[in-house]
Design goal:
The chain is α+β, with helices and mostly antiparallel strands. It has a single domain (5-182), classed as Aminopeptidase (3-Layer(aba) Sandwich), CATH 3.40.630. It is built from five helices and seven strands; from the N terminus they run E-H-H-H-E-E-E-H-E-H-E-E. The protein has helices at 15-29, 36-41, 50-54, 121-135, 150-155, and strands at 5-9, 58-64, 70-79, 105-112, 140-145, 159-167, 173-182. A seven-stranded mixed beta sheet has the order 1-2-3-4-5-7-6. Strand 6 (159-167) and strand 7 form a beta hairpin.
């Protein structure tokens, strides 16, 4: 496979393809870290937050030649609102805007299509997201990581501050790692 990737801001027209990448990534890339019960529960805590698209802080990674032949192979963004993670229907959402002088921007909703994993897509997203957050005046970031994403974030200098469990209404626990990074 050729590794020619480009990126652009996501649009609402991209939402179905983004959701498809997210679903495949959750079930394929998390299966070594979560039980079947946890995999089924994961969409309660993961998914597309369309506020990120509306805020123009969410990106798609594309593979292919020309607009008619491009495929979304990854996605991710950063948040300037208080919500740390989760999709449109996740509990605990907040639209409160963050203050770049005192708050941490959020790394949000990073996913890679399983067929394209280990091709630098996560690194590409991290570089885009951190650069955009810095350009918006933020000098520190935070995120909620899955177990599968932990090594990537550590590679980028994020430090663990806590490990918790999100719990569904049915009592299924899904692990979450809260991490932070300060820019120099």
């Amino acid at each position: 496979m050729s590794k020619k990737f480009t990126h652009r801001l996501a649009t609402m027209d991209d939402a179905p393809a983004i959701r498809d990448v997210m679903t495949k990534a959750i079930y394929e890339l998390q299966k070594d870290f979560l039980s079947e019960e946890q995999l089924k529960a994961a969409p309660n805590f993961m998914g597309l937050d369309t506020t990120l698209i509306q805020d123009q802080t969410y990106y798609v990674i594309l593979h292919g030649e020309g607009m008619d032949n491009e495929t979304i192979v990854g996605c991710g963004g950063w948040g300037k609102r208080a919500t740390l993670y989760g999709g449109d229907k996740s509990a605990g959402r907040s639209n409160e805007l963050l203050d770049p002088k005192k708050d941490r921007a959020r790394v949000r909703a990073m996913y890679c299509h399983p067929d394209w994993a280990r091709n630098g897509i996560g690194s590409m997203i991290m570089n885009i997201v951190e650069g955009a957050a810095r350009d918006a005046g933020f000098n520190k970031m935070t995120l909620g990581s899955t177990l599968a994403g932990e090594k990537l974030y550590q590679h980028y200098g994020y430090k663990e501050i806590s490990r918790t469990m999100d719990v569904t209404e049915d009592g299924v626990e899904v692990p979450l790692i809260r991490m932070i990074k300060d820019f120099k």
